[in-house]
Amino acid sequence: MNKHHDLVSRYFHACSHLSAAEIAAYFCSDAVVYDTNHRPVTGAETIGAFYVKVRDQWDGASWHVDTFIDGVSVAASEWTMLVRTDGSKKAVRGSEHYRFRDGLIEQIRQYWTYNPDDIATALKDYPYEEDARFTSEK
């Protein structure tokens, strides 16, 4: 197992079972999580509190890495979040693109759609106009 896969697996475990402070320890202090369903979550402490809130909202949600592709300073995963609703467990699936700095998670771009009837997957408030990957001519 490579170091990024191990880091992400431990971060998912923390989101599933540990405190906000323990989750925050996997992130750079100025980290940001971009998502398709909500505004960006900025700062390690805020990110930790956010995942505890999500876990509590879904009655003990748990996150699991399904597939993982690694690079030097970036990686991507497909994941499953198991939630409890209406008395049963349901699977929510998505993917994340990671950027790392100093052995911690610096940025997550999270793609999943809460409303399966809406296929738009643009990240909420992502600065596309400032990212050369999205502004250069194809």
Automatic annotation (TrEMBL):
It comes from the Bacteria. It holds the Pfam family SnoaL_2. SUPFAM superfamilies: NTF2-like. Coiled coil: none annotated. Residues 8-106 form the SnoaL-like domain. InterPro entries: NTF2-like_dom_sf, SnoaL-like. This is Nuclear transport factor 2 family protein. It comes from Salinisphaera aquimarina.
